[in-house]
Amino acid sequence: MTQTVQAYFVAFNAGDVAGMLTCLSDDVAHHVNEGQIRVGKDKFAEFCAHMNRCYRETLSDMVIFEAEGGTRAAAEYIVNGTYLETDAGLPVASGQTYRLPAGSFFDLKDGKITRVTTYYNLADWVKQVSGG
What kind of fold does domain 2-129 have according to CATH? Predict the structure, then answer.
């Protein structure tokens, strides 16, 4: 199942939301860092559209782990980003760049991702984009 997770991240780095969606189950549960759980591909696509408007990100230094049985996986990576447009409740965007360690956790079934949970240190990100 790590092939599915790898394909998801390849699509992410290419800015290919449609490619990411093909890796997801129709009822995917998307657990966002500091946010609400979104259920379904439509909600996931809406989130991606918002993110792509406010941020340009690529992931590097990725390590993917798979649990025995292939029903769960995790990934650790570095987010390399540019803050493009001010996101509600966050500092003003002016093209600041950031580099942030992050991780994602996945549930998988029948070759599809059924849950994505992403974690990063929001305080570290705020400090970086605020010039601290």
Answer: Nuclear Transport Factor 2; Chain: A, (3.10.450)
